[in-house]
TrEMBL record:
It comes from the Bacteria. This is Sulfurtransferase. The keyword Metal-binding does not apply. Keywords: Transferase. Pfam families: ChrB_C, Rhodanese. Residues 23-107 form the Rhodanese domain. The keyword Transferase applies. InterPro entries: ChrB_C, Rhodanese-like_dom, Rhodanese-like_dom_sf. SUPFAM superfamilies: Rhodanese/Cell cycle control phosphatase. The lineage of its organism: Bacteria, Pseudomonadati, Pseudomonadota, Alphaproteobacteria, Rhodospirillales. One of its GO terms (molecular function) is transferase activity.
Amino acid sequence: MASYNEIPVSTLARLVGTPDCPVLLDVRIDEDFDADPHLIPSAMRQPFLDVRDLADDLAGRSVVVYCQKGLKISQGAAALLRSVGAKAEILEGGQFAWKDAGLPMVLAEKLPPSDASGCSVWVTRHRPKIDRIACPWLIRRFVDPNAQILFVAASQVLNVAERFNATPFDVENVFWSHRGEKCTFDTMIEEFGISHSALEGLAVIVRGADTNRHDLAPEAAGLLAASLGLSRMYRDDLEQLEAGMMLYDAFYRWARDATDEGHDWPAALKKA
């Protein structure tokens, strides 16, 4: 049983990928990280002696700190954060416990470079519909919660990527894009190494909606309709993205928790 200021792996696993996920800090020493260069989804690396540098950003926020085993390093780092106002817990058993549970982890070498503020910067075509909303959702929920998404004219994506050290996605002839019959959302799940049943199910829906293959999943038509509706509701791409985040949060929770649930009210009419 987790003790005071500890969170069990099972509890954290339910929070990862949702808007309620706490800030995750990987404070493993470099030697431990080099031996296993993977991160719990959405976690950021932070030297354990420098956690107080994050005090202003983390004051009043929920934080989970983890080291290799959940012992002295994470406990000390969490205590430092609590002393400056963060609601910091440690992950019971550390990264070893997460890995032993068979939960997905992000391969660190796949992470794009960060800017001076520590955020990754991504750029794609403006006026997003499906993949260009789904991918930012995936990035912010499972890779980098603070990722900046730039929407620009299609002809300028690669130029902006070069000038602003941004990572281009969902355009032709770049790493993060469609591959064969699969879309960019599929590519990101595969390359980051975060595949699990809920994301795999959501990926089929996204692929069906994005490539006009509604035969892949009956929900694809609904996602297309909602996505096109959002694109008509918002002229500002970033406002559309914020609305789309909630849409994909809902689809993800359905894929994870509610695929077996139906709705037939009032049932009495069907029996008549």
